[in-house]
Structures are given as structure tokens and as C-alpha cells.
Amino acid sequence: MKKKKTSTLLLFFIVLVSGLLFACSNGNDNGDGSVELRFIAANHPWTEAIEPLLPEFEKETGIKVKFEKYFEDQLTQKLTTEFTAGSTSIDLFMMRPLQEGKLFNLNGWVADISSYTDDADWEYGDFTDPSVNSLKADDVLFGIPIVTEREILYYRKDIFEENNIEVPKTVEELMNVAKLLNDPANDFYGFVARGQSAAAVTQFSSFLYGFGGDFFVDGKATLDTPEAIEAFQFYGDMLREYGPPGVLNMSWPQAAGLFGQGKAAMYTDADSIYPNLTDPEKSVVGDKVGFTLFPAGPNGQTPYNVTSWGLAVNSKSENKDEAMEFIKWATSKEVVAKLQDNGVPGPRQSVWDNQQGTDTFPSELVDVINQANAIGREYDRPLVIKVNDARDIIGTVIVAAIQGEDVEAAAKAANKQFQELLDDEK
Amino acid sequence: MRKAKRLTYFNYVLIILVTLIFIFPFIWMLIASFKTQAQIMSTDTALFFQPTFDNYRSVFGEHNFLTYIINSFIVAFVSTVFGLILGLPAAYAIAKYKQQKLGFVILIARIIPGISFMIPWFIIFTKLNLTDSYTALVLSHMLVGLPFIIWIMIPSFEGLPAELEDAARVDGCTLQGAFVKVLLPLVMPGIITSSLMSFILSWNNFMFALVLSGEKTKTLPIAIFNFMSYSEINWGALMAAAVIITFPIIIISLFVQRYIISGVTAGAVKG
């Protein structure tokens, strides 16, 4: 009796599970033998701009592309999980070379695509140097840049004109102007930038380079060099004395929001967020925003100039050639020009030189970008595996500086921690 | 008498005050969903502004939220139903035969952090060719809901006198018949509480859905990130989507609220 009951239940369970499996299983087979690429993409204006162009590619090559889109942090999580599990179903994906490039490369998740660069029609040499360097490790190319960005200085043209002030060219002038225009009594501030610890690191980097510092040199952490301390001190002073209250909680959405509400005279951040400041739906100062090159520090003018997004091929993909076919199409001169026409700053110099590819950008911004393309560093954060940990460590010094604490002590403590992180990764 | 009345007014004022504080984020969310980006950021238009329905239009139009709602609903509903089918008899057996150890083993599934299941599951479901299918999502969400259902139902079943089942058996019911016809109706409050919670847990589940779902089976918590991108956060549409996600749960909760309360306390006092 008892045995019978058990077997009945077991049978019931088997039927239940197999029914579930049968009813819902679905394959990825197309049935007609054509290749379908699985493309894991980010929620990004680039993705939105390329989607309408896809039918062209599919018609030209007969290769189908299936998009999956995620917000950047989820994208990393999804990719990491699938790659750890050895997934072969992903063919190509978007990634942030500076944030996860090193990790992906060391884990062997990205395919070496150096051999594809000699295609003359594609003209690989046209990509700007900083943009390609972000995706190289020991001369091995593991990705193709699609979106680039530089740190620039946004300012309020109307306020500068009213007060008859020149646009600052050096950090010293930047501080003087901020001091002059700062008017907290009327809820107006001289300067705003990111103050939220880890988020601020990338936008602080241009200041760091300008003062002659760096995150690390030859495996040695250099956060407590006199140059670095001076840079931390300067950034902290700027935001403490001439910045808005609550700046410690500001990443770019808050800082850009404040500038967009007309409550700050100057703002340093990536050029890629400019639509947030110029679009009348999002900003009340749309037509009054000026753009200029990031001011020079005592050690020269070295804003970051990075590839924020690149395309890479899964090293385990069975359709590498087709995936490269897509990448070549998506980064061809014609397509990059069309994407740039939609406001996505691309990696090709020829497109920046061309009237057609820059029409939608404010002309001042195009000048600034063209100048910045010639200079700049190809990284805006330390290129390590545990980028987030490193950013947290460096962020503590930025926070200490903004709060007016002892910067040197904070820098020394952070430097020690950062050195440990670097040693661990060797 | 008068004093008592005054106290009541005072209580009402306090209640309203506390309620206002608690529902403030919700009200902000509701208001923000009718604003443009610039209006959300500005303090001048905090309360008085020209409402816009563009956010909702964008949520249902461009972003196709109806699909995600249907996906979420299917997964939450099916995983709850299967959770009940397996969980109710399990809880009854544990309560009746005092299998505390078994109960504890089931609880372990909830103690282990969910993230540690993700990679093994992904491998298994890939081999079975089940990624981006409802099956994978339903099974994974049952891991969250099932232990919950069992653990809420154990005290409910313990609260029932054993004589009830005996009486049913004497009157000619089979064991299964007694369970379905006599015992289940008596623990209805518990069933409603646990299935509602299981439904909500699944409805809000993010982690499992992120890895196991794809473009076809994307659920609401994943889809809400559609409004956040690298250099832009569409606050208005984000808030509209949040309202849409919260709304069904609030309606259901209000509707079955009285059952929840009696469900949670059932078994607390044995008499």
C-alpha cells in the first residue's frame, strides 16, 4: 500500500516536470540553415541608433542578428555568468574596455581579432590611436571601439558674457572664475562635478594627469605622490568651496541635473552626456551651454580620451567570421557617419573631419573634440582587474578632500590599500 | 467620554502623519511619472506642473511593456501554482508526522544565497536548451516561493486537530480526499497569504530572471532598466514603469488584506 502511494506520487512528479519541459522548451534553430548571431548589447544611444540600420546588414549578408539589451551593470553580470559557464551561444557583445577589458582578456573570454585588421575597405588605420589603444593588450587586439568620450569643460555662455569673463584655459583660472561666480546665497554655484566617491574617480583623472600624477606606474601605486596629493586637494577645494551642497552624493545624473537647472556656472564631465544639458526637455539652459577643452594643469593639458564602449567577439563563438563581418559593417565609415549623425561620438577621425558626420553636434563641441582627439590619455581609471575596488579606494581620498580632511593622510592610506590590490593581481 | 474622544482625534492626526511619511516615496513616484525630465529635476515644479502622459505612452509604446507584464504574470502565477501543488502536501506531511529535520533541510534552500545557484543553473538550463524559456524561470522562482509556502503552511496545519482528518476517514474519505475536501478549506487564510507572498517574491525577483531570461521572456524587474542607459536616465518613464509594476500588487494586496492578517497569526495561538 505504502509503496504504491510512493510510486504514484513519483509518477505524478515525473509527468509534471516532463510536461513542463516539453511544453516550454524552445530551440534557437532557425531551420533554414542561415546564421543568427546572438548579440548582447547595452542600453545605449549607439544600440538605439544601429537597430534601425540592421535590415541593411541582414539584406547584404544574409546574416541575422538577435539583440539582447541590458543596463551596463546587468550586462556585466550577465556576460560574466554566461562566460563562466562556458557559453558558446553568445557571438558578440558590447563591453566597456576600461571597466572590464582586462578581466575579460585575462579570462580568455574575448577572441583575438588582430588578424582581421588588414581589410583595406574597412580602413582600420582610420580609428584614432587613443580609441584603439584601450582595446589592446600586448599588441593583441581584442575589440573594436564604437563609442569614444573625452572630459571637457561645460560652461554658461550667458553668465560669462554678463560678467565679461574669459573661458578658463588653466586650472588656476578655473578656480578664480569659480570663486568669482560662486553665489551660494542665491543658490548658484561656481563649479560642479561628480563628488560621489567611486563615480568621481573617472572625472578626477584628467585633473590628476594635469597635475602630473597617475594612478600607478610600473606596478607601483602613486596615489600619495606630491603631484597626486595636490590634484586631490585641488579637486576637493573646488567642490567644497565653490560647489553645491550635497556634492558628495553626486554622480553625473545629479551633477548634470544641477547644471541643467541653471544652478552652476561650470561643470566638468564626459562630452557624451551633452544632450542632457542641451535638450530643452531636460535642461532649462539648453542654448546657453558652452563647450571648451579641459583646462591645462601645471603639467600640461591631458584630459582623458577613452573608448567607453567597444565590440568584442566571444572566444568560444562558433560564428566568429560572421561576428567580425557584423563588427566591420557596424564600424565602417558609412555606418559610423550615420551613427554619429544620431549623436553617438564615434572613433573614426575621417568622420570627425567630415561635415556630414558632425552636423548634429554643436559646432563648438566638434572643435573641442577634434582638439582633444590629438591629445589625451586612453584611460580614465586605473587599468586593473578589480576596477570597482580600485575606484572605491581612490574615491575615499576624493571624499576626504571634499570634506576638508587631511588629504595627505587619506592618500597615504589609500595608496597602501591600492598597492595591496596591485600586488594581489600580479 | 469627551477625553476619550479627543484622544481619538489625536490618534487620527498621528496616523495620518505617519501614513504620509510612509507613502511619500510612492506619491513622489506617482507624481514624477506625469512629469518631464526637467520638471522632475526642478524644485519649482514639485507640486504644480503641466502633467504629461508621454511617459506612459513611451512605456507601453516604444518599450512594449505589455509583453513584460504578461511574462512576469505567467512566471509568477505558474510558479505559485506549482509551489502550492508541491508545497501544501509537503507542509501537511511535515506538520502531521513531525518531520522537523526535513523542514529544516527545505529551509536551507533559502539560507544559501541565491547568487550561488546562478552559474550551475545556467549550465544546466543551457544543456537542456531551456534558457530564455518560461520553464527555467518558473523552476528557479519556485526555489524562492516553495520553501516560503511550506514554512507558512506548517503552523497552519499544526493548528488543525488530528480528529478532523480521522473523522473524514471514518466517513469514507480517502487520505487525499480528506486533505483536499476537509483540511485545505480550513487553512485557506494561510494558503492565500503564502501564495500572495510567493507571487510577490516572483514578481519582484531580479537575479534569477537576469541570467535565465532572454529577449523573449524578459520580466518586469529587468525591463525597468530599459530606462537607464550609459549617459541618460529617463526618470519620468522609469517612474511610470515603477507605478505599473507596483499597481497590480497593491490591488491584489488590498483585496485579500484581511486574509493575510489572519494567515500570519494563524497557528500563533493554539487553542
Automatic annotation (TrEMBL), chain A:
This is Sugar ABC transporter substrate-binding protein. Residues 1-23 form the signal peptide. The lineage of its organism: Bacteria, Bacillati, Bacillota, Bacilli, Bacillales. InterPro entries: Bact_solute-bd_prot1, SBP. Keywords: Signal.
From TrEMBL, chain B:
Residues 69-256 form the ABC transmembrane type-1 domain. InterPro entries: BP-dep_ABC_trans_perm, MetI-like, MetI-like_sf. It is found in: Cell membrane. Keywords: Cell membrane, Membrane, Transmembrane, Transmembrane helix, Transport. GO terms for cellular component: plasma membrane. The chain crosses the membrane at residues 12-31, 65-95, 102-124, 136-157, 178-203, 235-256. It comes from the Bacteria. GO terms for biological process: transmembrane transport. CDD domains: TM_PBP2. The keyword Cytoplasm does not apply. It is a multi-pass membrane protein. Belongs to the binding-protein-dependent transport system permease family. This is Carbohydrate ABC transporter permease. It comes from Perspicuibacillus lycopersici.
